[in-house]
Amino acid sequence: EAGVAQSPRYKIIEKRQSVAFWCNPISGHATLYWYQQILGQGPKLLIQFQNNGVVDDSQLPKDRFSAERLKGVDSTLKIQPAKLEDSAVYLCASSPRTGGGNTIYFGEGSWLTVV
Amino acid sequence: DQQVKQNSPSLSVQEGRISILNCDYTNSMFDYFLWYKKYPAEGPTFLISISSIKDKNEDGRFTVFLNKSAKHLSLHIVPSQPGDSAVYFCAASSHGSGNTGKLIFGQGTTLQVKP
Q: How far apart are CA A88 and CA B31, in angstroms?
């Protein structure tokens, strides 16, 4: 079974530029997550989708970050304009459903450096 | 507010000995706990989990212990192997009504197993 796919793996941009990350979850997984992991910290949830609806985006900086999951499968996360503090690994993850007692499976991450 | 804490940033053990990684949490609503392992340049991979109805779960060399009264869990790796060297994240979620099942992560502990 294929895992969570993410691209690009690495991206370097200048501040105030824009960047987009793509994610394809595990086949059949209804729930998709975007996490941000800053070096030395644990992953922090940015947004959670159930199919193509947003379940939780309380920690998404909506002035610069946006995400969509059209058709309930693939998802894109966009940052515009980027700031230096956005340098992090952006982890996409999926799970079969929403709710507690759920194991979440991560992709390899998209590494962003903002200079 | 850090709801899940891993107070030891790093741990070094000799090959063949036991590794004990600790995690504390503050939210009494958490009822499902997971450990993830992360190698450099890869996403976190699921290792083992435990529900709050249990106090121990074992899978091969890995055992997770949960002490609900102390709001503390630990991961034991016996015997430790050099391939276990990685960053270990503790995570927690709630099962209750309305909860999305999102995982709250600790900061991680870097384990080094010396040959």
A: 29
Do the beta carbons of residue B7 and residue B108 sit within 8 Å? no
- For B57-104, write each residue's pLDDT tens digit: 999 999 999 999 999 999 999 999 999 999 999 999 987 656 677 889
Lowest mean pLDDT segment, chosen from A16-25, A68-77, B98-107: B98-107
pLDDT of residue A100: 65
CB spacing of A106 vs B100 below 8 angstroms = no
Q: Which residues on chain A are in Cβ contact (under 8 Å) with B51?
A: 101
Helix, strand or coil, per DSSP, at residue B107: coil
**Cβ-defined contact of A108 to B31 (cutoff 8 Å):** no
Q: For B106, name the nearest residue in chain A, comparing CA atoms only.
A: A42
Give the CB-side neighbour count of residue B30, counting CA atoms within 13 A.
Answer: 28
Beta strands in chain A (DSSP E): 5-7, 10-13, 19-24, 31-37, 44-50, 53-56, 65-68, 75-79, 88-95, 105-106, 110-114
Contact by Cβ (8 Å): A49, A69: yes
Tell me what percent of the residues of chain B surpass a pLDDT of 90. 84
